[in-house]
Every structure is written in structure tokens, then in C-alpha cells.
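Try this one yourself first.
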């Protein structure tokens, strides 16, 4: 598997080879060097943007199983407007889910956090700030931010999450070090609903139902009405197609808290 470490090794090996050839044997056009740097940049960008690549840090994005089981997760809550309604629907269908919460949204919504846990769902860490420039933070600032979110959860329910989902799904060397220092387990997804972008209920339903597969981890958001509108139909579809929704930590055989 291509990783940041072996990509750097290959890049330096090729660059060194070109330099040696340039000095001792043949003239090498500047274009070859530019092409090498361009390919390297593409590889690093891919690693940053796609959590499934495991380029900087290993991330669990699905369960390796042939059983017709899936897990669903919700990012960016809690919100007083939508999270309780999502919980109500999940309760009606007897479904357990994972909520990757933002720490700065917990204050004032502690009762929702307690409800999530009391109704047999789990809470994951989705950073404290979910800042637009989070991926440009230093390792120290990332570490403090992630820990602050865990502290908020612990203050509300006495539990400290160990499952972590990076803001925007972006990873880089700084975040990889912060995850390692905090002993977090990185969890991604295999089906990204794009429910924050797709406003059509019909299009959203079609997208999430055509992507279903054994061991899938679905990414939703408990922050918008489109998700809320489509969720019951999706849960019904899952059942009608003989799939079972298993809580994320149970499907992946992980401990959700310290």
C-alpha cells in the first residue's frame, strides 16, 4: 500500500538517481525533475484528501465481511434542532448508531449527549473546533483541540471517546502524530452520503441505497432536514434488503471509550 513514508523513499530514490545521472553521465532536461515533483504532489494530495487511502494514518473505513451488515454514523452534531429527531427515528427502527460530535457544540447540549448514550448509541471524537483550517494546525494545536473535545464528553457522561474521525476527512503528517500521541483509533467511511450537499431527497436516497455493501460504514450528518427526511426510508430499505445495521464499534470489534 502506498503510504507517505514509502512515497518519500521512492521520490528521494528517483531524485537521487536523476541527480547522479545528471552529474556523471547524461544531461537530463528540467522537465523530468518538474514531472517528478508533480507526481509526488499528486500522491500527497490524494493521501490528504482521501482517508480511505491510509496514506498518513491507518483508518478503518469498512468491515472486512461478507455478512450483510452495515454501520451508520452521524457527524457534526449535536444540534438541538436535528439530533433529537434523528434519535427518535433510530429508536423507532431499533437502530444503534455512532455520533462523531464536535466539542464546541456540546455545551448547552449535554442532555442530548446523555440521551445518545442512554439510547445505546456511541459518541466519537470529531475535534473540538472543526475549524476550516484544522488541517493546517500544528501537531500540538491538533492534540489540544482533540483532547478538549474528549474532555467535554467526559464532563457530560463520564466517558472518554477513543474513536476519532478527522474534520473533513483530511489527514496529514501533523494529524497522524496527534492521533498517535492521543492513542486514538481513526474511523472513516466507505459510503459518503453527501447529505450536506444533496438537497433533493430523491437523489440522496438513490445515492445511499445504490452504494450499500457488506461491511459498509455510512457517513451522514445530524445537521440538516434532508437527512432527516430520507432516514426512515433508508432504514426501511436496509431491512427489506435483508441487511442488518450493527453499531459501529460492535461491527468493527472496537472499544469506543477508554
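Now uncover the answer:
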Amino acid at each position: 500500500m502506498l503510504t507517505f513514508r514509502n512515497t518519500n523513499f521512492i521520490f528521494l530514490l528517483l531524485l537521487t538517481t536523476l541527480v547522479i545521472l545528471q552529474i556523471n553521465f547524461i544531461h537530463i532536461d528540467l522537465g523530468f525533475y518538474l514531472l517528478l515533483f508533480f507526481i509526488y504532489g499528486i500522491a500527497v494530495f490524494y493521501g490528504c484528501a482521501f482517508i480511505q487511502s491510509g496514506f498518513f494514518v491507518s483508518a478503518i473505513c469498512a468491515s472486512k465481511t461478507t455478512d450483510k451488515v452495515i454501520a451508520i454514523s452521524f457527524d457534526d452534531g449535536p444540534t438541538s434542532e436535528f439530533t433529537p429527531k434523528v434519535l427518535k427515528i433510530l429508536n423507532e427502527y431499533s437502530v444503534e448508531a455512532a455520533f462523531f460530535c464536535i466539542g464546541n457544540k456540546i455545551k448547552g447540549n449535554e442532555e442530548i449527549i446523555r440521551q445518545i448514550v442512554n439510547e445505546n448509541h456511541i459518541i466519537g471524537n470529531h475535534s473540538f473546533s472543526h475549524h476550516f483550517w484544522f488541517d493546517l494546525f500544528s501537531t500540538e494545536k491538533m492534540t489540544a483541540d482533540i483532547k478538549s473535545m474528549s474532555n467535554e464528553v467526559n464532563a457530560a457522561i463520564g466517558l472518554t471517546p477513543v474513536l476519532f474521525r478527522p474534520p473533513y476527512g483530511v489527514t496529514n503528517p501533523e494529524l497522524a502524530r496527534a492521533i498517535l500521541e492521543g492513542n486514538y483509533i481513526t474511523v472513516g467511511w466507505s459510503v459518503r452520503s453527501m447529505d450536506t450537499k444533496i438537497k433533493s431527497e430523491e437523489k440522496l436516497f438513490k445515492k445511499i441505497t445504490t452504494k450499500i455493501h457488506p461491511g459498509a460504514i455510512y457517513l451522514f450528518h445530524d445537521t440538516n432536514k434532508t437527512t432527516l427526511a430520507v432516514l426512515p426510508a433508508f432504514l426501511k430499505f436496509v431491512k427489506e434488503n435483508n441487511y442488518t445495521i450493527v453499531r459501529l464499534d460492535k461491527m468493527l470489534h472496537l472499544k469506543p471509550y477508554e
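Discussion: Strands lie at 69-75, 98-101, 122-125, 163-164, 185-186, 191-192, 216-221, 244-245. The chain is about 45% helix and 10% strand.
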